[in-house]
Amino acid sequence: MNIADLRKSYERDALDEQAADPDPLRQFQRWLQQALDAQLPEPNAMTLATVGDDGRPSSRIVLIKGCDERGLVWYTNRHSRKGRDLAARPFAALQFHWVELERVVRIEGRVEHTSDEESDAYYASRPLDSRIGAWASPQSEVISSRAVLVANAAQVSARHLLNPPRPPHWGGYRLKPDRWEFWQGRKSRLHDRLRYRQNDSQDGPNPPDGVWIRERLAP
Fold first, then answer.
1. At what angle are helices 128-136 and 146-160 packed, to 10 degrees?
2. DSSP 69
3. What is the pLDDT of residues 108-123, one digit of tens each?
4. What is residue 141's DSSP assignment?
5. Pairing relation of β-strands 91-98 and 103-113?
6. Is residue 191 part of a domain?
7. Exposed, middle or buried, 17 (CB in 10 Å: 0-12/13-18/19+)?
8. How far apart are CA 51 and CA 72, in angstroms?
9. Tell me, what's the pLDDT at 203?
10. Which residue has the higher pLDDT, 5 or 202?
11. What is the rounded radius of gyration, in angstroms, for the C-alpha atoms of the chain?
């Protein structure tokens, strides 16, 4: 099969300015709920893209664990490559791709740590094996074999039994969006793209600062 010959016609739905919510967070929550209701595989999976201090971009899949007016939250090892990237440049891009619904959501913004209280509460809610794994894996570091992870996990289990505390290098991140884009596949590659961006001085006195400006982008 020649991958250049692969084609798909997108005809499930449409996205227009009248139907879209003027608030991008509410629009995102609506689409996320529809993905959940459709029982899609891992609808909470999102691509996280960062840039390190060497200027090289990097992306990986993480899972969204919270979403409100403060931003979108995920948890990870802060000593990992993504953690080092965000320490150097605290901006990131997120992307959700709900293939079955022919939808993509792209989000950009500044990233900060969640509070220790939030990180502690989420860590405590995880299964025991996952809590042990947060200690056992020196994420993004070179290891000689899987046996290193197994041995580390055994040591953590022996030391902390059923109640390992949250590792000091493990916690949450929150991205506060300043750009959202909603993409709905359409027939003939004339897709719908709506971008939301926050008002700035270039937009003049109307709308007021802090109001989301919604714009249609050419596909």
1. 120
2. T
3. 999 999 999 999 999 9
4. S
5. antiparallel
6. yes
7. exposed
8. 18
9. 58
10. 5
11. 20
Active site includes 214?
no
The pLDDT confidence band at residue 8, using thresholds 50, 70 and 90, is: confident
The torsion angle over the Cα atoms of residues 13, 19, 24 and 29, rounded to 10 degrees, is -60
Range of the domain at 78: 11-127+168-216
Q: What percent of the chain has pLDDT over 70?
A: 95
User: Could you tell me if residue 31 is inside a domain?
Assistant: yes
**pLDDT of 5:** 82
CA dist list (Å): 168 to 77, 83, 93, 134: 9, 13, 25, 10
Query: Rounded distance, CA 177 to CA 179, Å?
Result: 6
- Tell me how many domains the chain contains: 1
**Measured between alpha carbons, how far is 46 from 93 in angstroms, rounded to an integer?**
10
CA–CA distance, 118 with 95 (Å, rounded to integer) = 23
From the candidates 189, 195, 197, 216, give the one annotated as an active-site residue: 189
Do the beta carbons of residue 219 and residue 148 sit within 8 Å? no
